[in-house]
Amino acid sequence: MTTVRLNSADPVSFDTDALIVGFRSGPEGPRPATGAEPLDAAFGGKLAASLSSLGFAGKPGEIAKLPTFGSVSAPLLVAVG
């Protein structure tokens, strides 16, 4: 059974199968939701650039999956616009 929980705590150490993070479209590419700074830092400040390289802009209805390769506890990040 799939369980979805909304949480505003630091996502870097969540014990979960996937992190779902909201993004918005900006003039310089996708921008993570407020409070996602620790997540971006875990990706070496390159989270938005990584998603942008996949063609993800953060527009409504867009979805991108990005493996975390150990940057955070969850093995998969799902970005939603």
UniProtKB/TrEMBL annotation:
InterPro entries assigned to the protein according to its UniProt record, in alphabetical order: Macro_dom-like (IPR043472), Peptidase_M17_N (IPR008283)
Pfam families, alphabetized: Peptidase_M17_N (PF02789)
Q: A GO molecular function for this record?
A: aminopeptidase activity
The answer to whether keyword Hydrolase applies is: yes
What keywords is this UniProt entry annotated with? Aminopeptidase, Hydrolase, Protease
The lineage's top-level taxon is Bacteria
Give start and end of each Peptidase M17 leucyl aminopeptidase N-terminal domain.
20-81
- Record-given protein name: Leucyl aminopeptidase
| Organism name | Nonomuraea corallina
Organism lineage string = Bacteria, Bacillati, Actinomycetota, Actinomycetes, Streptosporangiales
